[in-house]
Amino acid sequence: MGRSYGDVCLLQNGTLLRTPNLDRLISFDAQTGLLRCEAGVTLAQILDFAVPRGWFLPVSPGTKYVTVGGAIANDIHGKNHHVAGTFGLHTPCFELIRSDGTQLVCSPTENPDVYSATIGGMGLTGFISWAEVQMRPIVSRRIRYHSTQFVGLEEFVALSQASTQEYSVAWIDCVAQGRNFARGIFIQGEHDENPGPLTPLAKPKLTLPFDLPAFALNRSSVGAFNTLYYHKQISKQRSGFTDYEPFFYPLDRILQWNRLYGEQGLLQFQCVLPWAINTMGMTQLLKAITTSGLASFLAVIKVFGDISSPGMMSFPMPGITLALDFPIRREVSFDLLDRLAAITAEFGGRMYPAKDACMSAAHFRQFYPQWEQFAVYIDPSFSSSFWQRVAGLG
Ligand SMILES: Cc1cc2nc3c(=O)[nH]c(=O)nc-3n(C[C@H](O)[C@H](O)[C@H](O)COP(=O)(O)OP(=O)(O)OC[C@H]3O[C@@H](n4cnc5c(N)ncnc54)[C@H](O)[C@@H]3O)c2cc1C
Hints:
single chain, alpha+beta, Alpha-Beta Plaits, 8-stranded antiparallel beta sheet, 5-stranded antiparallel beta sheet, 12 helices, 17 strands, 23% strand, binds ligand 1
């Protein structure tokens, strides 16, 4: 679906394999929730099939318009990382086709090394043709949520650590400085345990019909939006029920939301910093971002848990992850991303290839020291612009 933000899904001057026709569900065990499907099936298709039958995705990213193949190749994470780990953990088996025609069934017991290299392997080890996904049961589409305003990273960490809910994430204001520095809204939720509706209500989607002019997103407009958004929640705490769609996929309601950033487009930055350094590194990152005045209002922060992923190159590690968009301003945005990468490296963290368009080879090797071990599994006919850049082949 090309939903990765950078060049992990692109290959300049190469042939791009697209999977929209690999869209068939192969089998479903209604007793255990084990689904087998072709790799081009999207999470949206799976939800349409599974939710009315009382099953839900084990891990879901912030958009449902990604394929199962893409979810495995980037070993994606969701709001439940602290209790469920990554998507790969719920993918007990898949088939990988190599360019020499070999078809390998991969699981923790069959070709386990290829299984581990392919989960989070950025599409480089071969072509995933089908996969199994272990779904989880639900009795209602509804999510019981609870949101809390916070100011400062310490308050955010305390809320995350105190939360007992399955899903948690926070929106963070990356423009406010001074006493409002690092303010945000912590959102937690879980599936309603009381039986409720499982079929969807049809809701119209909005489409952004044109690119916004470049000046529309600036420090003042984003600052004003953030202040309104922060105070939209009048009391410090708010609770209620909501359908799972707005809870998990708020951006999916605005088709072509990326046009908000104008013709130049956007860069996304996502990193994780390990716990050992507490919140010092994250404070430095946020200071660099707020003083740049370049951040958009789309910024989230979350605590990752310590469930290890089966992927050799998976991104998550125990600690705090920050993800946000920047509108591209040629003269400044790339320099800022370099600075953020340097701070990430200094504090022992790593950046997420699925969200990256400019990580240097030196930083990649520092973030993923196991890269040479991984490179052994790369199919000789497969590559990406990302890989050529970070492996120094470009
Ligand atoms: C609004 C939004 C929110 C997001 N939120 C999150 C989030 O919360 N957590 C998160 O982890 N990610 C998130 N993402 C990123 C997204 O989940 C990943 O980039 C995902 O991999 C995209 O899937 P895709 O099908 O679009 O794959 P693409 O972007 O097209 O490809 C991604 C990679 O998968 C490989 N690939 C795809 N299909 C196959 C196949 N059949 N066989 C082998 N390799 C294959 C490609 O080669 C490429 O390397 C978000 C993206 C957006 C746009």
